Amino acid sequence: MKIACLQFAPEVGRVQENIKRADDILRSAAIPSDLTWLVLPELAFSGYNFQSLEEIKPFLEPTTSGISTQWAQQVAKHYNCHVTVGYAEVTIPDTNPEDSQTQYNSTVTVSPRGEILHNYRKSFLYYTDETWASEGPGSRSHKLSDTSSPDSPFYAGQLGDLWKVTMGICMDINPYKFVSPWSDYEFSSLALSSQSPIVCISMAWLCHLTPTELMQDPSQPDIATVAYWVERFQPLVDAGGEKPIFVILANRCGMEKGVCYAGSSTVLRIEKGVVSLYETAGKSEETCLIVDLTERPKFQGVQSSFFVKSLAEGTSLEMAVKDHAFKEAAMGLLAPSGAHKSIDGGRSVEGVVGGAMFD
């Protein structure tokens, strides 16, 4: 199975330009003839940073029938692969359409033949989403697999010819509204209980880097962000399962209205309590990251308990991310397979890692 994450920098409201940008990246990439799945970021073509329903309204798309879905169907047929793309959804009932509309932050997944396989609606909204979107109804309206938790708002089920997949969007991997206990791990707990071999998350994940910092070494990932993502899948690590679980994290990059995005799209492998990383895109790199899940991961690291320990001791999320011990573990995460990598004593840990945001 070969996975591709299309990481790029869409601009708010410039839909046609953003589509052209994505097309150009795909054309310049060495897309394999046997690509299985292409995954795009959250709100891929509309952009993300809308401040109100009125602002995003011109870019809302009817459920699985707007420009994003049409693009996904065309690309799926062209490359003979599955495609997942994020879009701003509006439901339009046949009766009283203006009075009954509901907006969601969604992804649509289509088959290589262009068939609609699933429409997932983001369950845990970030502050920006809450200005215009409703929480996804999750299992109350979606067709879930028999092994999915009936109490979970997330999706886990068979997607066409793909394996069983747990799907989410960005903030879904965080504690609900940042008020639920860190240790609840709502999203990754479903991934574990559903026995999904694949987890797929489309993202518009922010970072604390300044615009200047973001453009320094653009091909290098934001290590703090990658390490934070890994920590949010601690239940899968702790389970120590013999069978591998693959985690696809397809983020966007760039800036919108002064907001910086972390990029760093990556594909993880979790097996026997060990987290391996196939490859990661740079924090400001527009690229199509392609990973063959049958190959050996490029990086391997042991999951650190420093982050969880800091939280258990009452440290805030923000302070835990900046904790020195966690940063050291984060650097170790990206050591090549079979090697150990430590921080150069002459190099600033603060400058190397920075901070992580939580959308």
Summarize, please.
By secondary structure, the chain is α/β, with parallel strands linked by helices.
Written overview of the protein:
- By secondary structure, the protein is an alpha/beta fold.
- It has a single domain, classed as Carbon-nitrogen hydrolase (Nitrilase/N-carbamoyl-D-aminoacid amidohydrolase).
- It is built from eleven helices and 16 strands.
- The strands form three sheets. Strands 1, 2, 3, 4, 5, 6 and 15 form a seven-stranded mixed sheet that branches. Strands 7-8-9-10-13-14-16 form a seven-stranded mixed sheet, with helices on one face.
- A hairpin with a 5-residue loop joins strand 7 (155-158) and strand 8 (164-169).
- The protein is globular.
- Residues 139-149 and 302-355 have low confidence and may be disordered.
- Residues 1-295 form the CN hydrolase domain.
Q: Kindly give the count of domains.
A: 1
Per CATH, the class reads Alpha Beta
Tally of strands: 16
User: So how many helices?
Assistant: 11
**What general form does the structure show?**
globular
Radius of gyration: 19 Å
Question: Helices and strands: which structural class?
Answer: alpha/beta
CATH topology: Nitrilase/N-carbamoyl-D-aminoacid amidohydrolase
Listing every helix as H and every strand as E from the N terminus to the C terminus, the arrangement reads EHEHEHEEEEEHEHHHEEEEEEEHHHH
Summarize the main sheet.
7 strands, mixed
Proportion of β residues? 15-25%
GO molecular function: protein-N-terminal asparagine amidohydrolase activity; protein-N-terminal glutamine amidohydrolase activity
Organism: Alternaria tenuissima
Protein name: CN hydrolase domain-containing protein
Pfam families: CN_hydrolase
